[in-house]
C-alpha cells in the first residue's frame, strides 16, 4: 500500500488515480480509410472522403490496426476478446465531421490485463501491479487551431480517423510517483511491441487523468478527469495539483463536481472545461456500417509469436548475467537502449563490465553531446573493441577513458588509436620495478611511515608510480610489486 498522503487542515487524505491513455497505433493508414498518418504534414493533406464524412462513404476496417492492438493486449497479459463490436459515440464538435466517433464501449477488443511497475529501480520488492480494465480501438477526431486567424478557428482533419488504442487502467494508483511509473512503463511496453511510438510531445500518446480523494480506507470520492495531458511530468503535476484542489475544496465545505478539466502547464493549475457526460449522453449504439469483429485462434497465436522479448523478461535475463538490478532496470527502460546493449552483448562483451560502462561512460558522453543512444557516434561493435582491450590488459581503465574521448571525436577504432598514440599498457615487471625503486628511494620518509603503520600511504605510492609511467603501467602489477617491496 502507498503511504503517500495529502496533508489537509483536518487530517490526511488519500488520492485515487486512474489513467485513460490514448495511444496512436503505428500504421501507414487510418482505422477506416487508406489516408496517410505521417506526423507534420500540411493541414488537410491526409484526408480521404471517408475521413471528411462525405455522403455515402462507408468505413473499411484496417486489419493492421487490429493486429497491433491485439499484440499490445498480449504484451500486457490481457484477455483478447474473440468477439468485439464497434459503436457510434454521438456528439457534435467542429473537428468531428461525422457528428459521431466510431469507438467500442460495450464490447472492447481487449479485456483485463496488468502492468507491473518498480517504484524504486534499485529495489525489486518495490514492485506494484496496476490493473488494466480494457483496451478499445477507436478513431481520433480532427484538430481545431485557434491561433491562425484573429476571428476564426481553422480545422485540420489530418488526424481525423487515425487509429487510437484507449488503454483504461483500474483506479489502482495512489501517488503522483505511481502514476508516473505506470505511464513510463506502459510507454516502454508499447515501444517494445512497436504498436505506438510513444511520442507524447507529438500527441501520439496522451493521458486523461482521473483523480479523486478520500479519507484513507473510506469509500471512493467524486472524480474529475483532466484531458489530453501530454507528458509524464505533467501527469504527475496534474495528480498533485488536482488532489490538493479537491482537498482544499472539501475542507472548506464545498463539494467536488464530476467534470472534465484542462491542465495549464504555464500556471500549473487545472481548470474546468465541461460537466462530465455519462454514456447515455452520447447515445451509443452499434455502428450499422460495420460487422462485429471475430478473431480466430490462429490470428491471436500469430500476434503472440510476433512479440519481442518484453522489458520485464529482458530485465530478468540481464540480472541473470550478473548485471545489478539498477543497471538492468535502466538498460531496459527504453527499447532503443536495450537493442543497443543487446548488440553489444552479441559481440561477446562481458555483461557486467559492459553494463557499468554503458550506464557510466556512454550515457555521460551522450548527455554531454545532447544525443540519444540511437545517435551514438560509437557503435556497439566499436564499444566492444574498446572493452575488449581493457579486459585483455592491453590498456587500463584510465587510458580507456582517453581512448573513448578520441573515438567520440574522430570515429576511429579503439585498437587503431591505442597503436597510433602508443597507449598500450606495460606489464613489463622490470620497467615497473625500476620506477618503483626510484619512487621509494625519493620518499624514504614516507616508506618508513608506511612501515610504521600508516597504511593509507599505499595509495600515494600507486599514484606516483602510475604518474611516472604516464598511466600505462598495468595497475594490478603496480599494486603487486609495491606490496612486495614495501611489505618485504
From TrEMBL:
Enzyme class, spelled out: ligase
PROSITE patterns linked to this entry: GATB
Keyword presence, DNA damage: no
Entry's Gene Ontology molecular function annotations: asparaginyl-tRNA synthase (glutamine-hydrolyzing) activity; ATP binding; glutaminyl-tRNA synthase (glutamine-hydrolyzing) activity; transferase activity
Family matches, as SUPFAM superfamilies: GatB/YqeY motif, Glutamine synthetase/guanido kinase
InterPro entries: Asn/Gln-tRNA_amidoTrfase_suB/E (IPR017959), Asn/Gln-tRNA_Trfase_suB/E_cat (IPR006075), Asn/Gln_amidotransferase (IPR018027), Asn/Gln_tRNA_amidoTrase-B-like (IPR003789), GatB (IPR004413), GatB_C_1 (IPR042114), GatB_Yqey_C_2 (IPR023168), Gln-tRNA_amidoTrfase_suB_CS (IPR017958)
GO biological process: glutaminyl-tRNAGln biosynthesis via transamidation; translation
E.C. designation(s): 6.3.5.-
Self-association state and partner proteins as the record states: Heterotrimer of A, B and C subunits.
Role noted for this protein: Allows the formation of correctly charged Asn-tRNA(Asn) or Gln-tRNA(Gln) through the transamidation of misacylated Asp-tRNA(Asn) or Glu-tRNA(Gln) in organisms which lack either or both of asparaginyl-tRNA or glutaminyl-tRNA synthetases. The reaction takes place in the presence of glutamine and ATP through an activated phospho-Asp-tRNA(Asn) or phospho-Glu-tRNA(Gln).
Name under which the protein is recorded: Aspartyl/glutamyl-tRNA(Asn/Gln) amidotransferase subunit B
Organism: Sphingomonas xanthus
Amino acid at each position: 500500500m502507498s503511504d503517500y498522503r495529502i496533508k489537509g487542515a483536518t487530517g490526511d487524505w488519500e488520492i485515487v488515480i486512474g489513467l485513460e491513455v490514448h495511444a496512436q497505433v503505428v500504421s501507414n493508414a487510418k482505422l477506416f480509410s487508406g489516408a496517410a498518418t505521417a506526423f507534420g504534414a500540411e493541414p488537410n493533406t491526409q484526408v480521404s472522403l471517408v475521413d471528411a464524412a462525405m455522403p455515402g462513404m462507408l468505413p473499411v476496417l484496417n486489419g493492421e490496426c487490429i493486429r497491433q492492438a491485439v499484440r499490445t493486449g498480449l504484451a500486457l497479459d490481457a484477455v483478447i476478446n474473440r468477439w468485439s463490436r464497434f459503436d457510434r459515440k454521438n456528439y457534435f464538435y467542429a473537428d468531428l465531421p461525422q457528428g459521431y466517433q466510431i469507438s467500442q464501449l460495450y464490447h472492447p477488443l481487449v479485456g483485463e490485463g496488468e502492468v507491473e511497475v518498480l517504484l524504486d529501480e534499485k529495489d525489486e520488492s518495490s514492485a506494484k501491479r496496476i490493473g488494466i480494465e480494457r483496451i478499445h480501438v477507436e478513431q481520433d477526431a480532427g484538430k481545431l487551431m485557434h491561433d491562425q486567424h484573429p476571428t476564426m478557428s481553422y480545422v485540420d482533419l489530418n488526424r481525423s480517423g487515425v487509429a487510437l488504442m484507449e488503454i483504461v487502467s483500474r483506479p489502482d494508483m495512489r501517488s503522483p510517483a505511481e502514476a508516473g511509473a505506470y505511464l513510463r512503463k506502459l510507454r516502454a511496453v508499447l515501444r517494445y511491441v512497436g504498436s505506438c511510438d510513444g511520442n507524447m510531445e507529438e500527441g501520439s500518446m496522451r493521458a486523461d487523468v482521473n483523480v479523486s480523494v478520500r479519507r484513507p480506507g473510506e469509500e471512493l470520492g467524486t472524480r474529475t478527469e483532466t484531458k489530453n495531458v501530454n507528458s509524464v511530468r505533467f501527469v504527475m503535476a496534474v495528480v498533485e495539483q488536482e488532489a490538493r484542489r479537491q482537498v482544499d475544496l472539501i475542507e472548506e465545505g464545498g463539494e467536488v463536481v464530476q467534470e472534465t478539466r484542462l491542465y495549464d502547464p504555464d500556471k500549473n493549475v487545472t481548470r474546468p472545461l465541461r460537466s462530465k457526460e455519462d454514456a447515455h449522453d452520447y447515445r451509443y449504439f452499434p455502428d450499422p456500417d460495420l460487422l462485429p469483429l471475430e478473431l480466430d485462434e490462429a490470428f491471436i497465436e500469430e500476434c503472440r509469436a510476433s512479440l519481442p522479448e518484453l522489458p520485464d523478461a529482458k530485465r530478468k535475463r540481464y540480472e541473470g548475467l550478473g548485471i545489478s538490478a539498477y543497471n538492468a532496470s535502466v538498460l531496459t527502460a527504453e527499447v532503443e537502449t536495450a537493442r543497443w546493449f543487446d548488440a553489444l552483448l552479441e559481440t561477446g562483451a562481458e555483461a557486467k563490465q559492459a553494463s557499468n560502462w554503458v550506464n557510466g561512460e556512454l550515457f555521460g558522453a551522450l548527455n554531454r553531446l545532447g544525443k540519444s543512444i540511437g545517435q551514438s557516434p560509437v557503435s556497439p561493435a566499436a564499444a566492444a573493441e574498446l572493452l575488449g582491450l581493457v579486459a585483455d590488459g592491453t590498456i587500463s581503465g584510465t587510458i580507456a577513458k582517453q581512448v573513448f574521448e578520441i573515438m567520440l571525436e574522430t570515429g576511429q577504432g579503439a585498437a587503431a588509436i591505442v597503436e597510433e598514440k602508443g597507449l598500450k599498457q606495460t606489464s613489463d615487471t622490470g620497467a615497473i620495478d625500476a620506477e618503483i625503486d626510484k619512487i621509494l628511494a625519493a620518499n624514504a620518509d614516507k616508506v618508513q611511515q608506511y612501515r610504521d603503520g600508516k597504511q593509507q600511504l599505499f595509495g600515494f605510492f600507486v599514484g606516483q608510480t602510475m604518474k611516472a609511467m604516464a598511466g600505462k603501467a598495468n595497475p594490478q602489477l603496480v599494486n603487486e610489486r609495491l606490496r612486495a617491496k614495501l611489505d618485504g
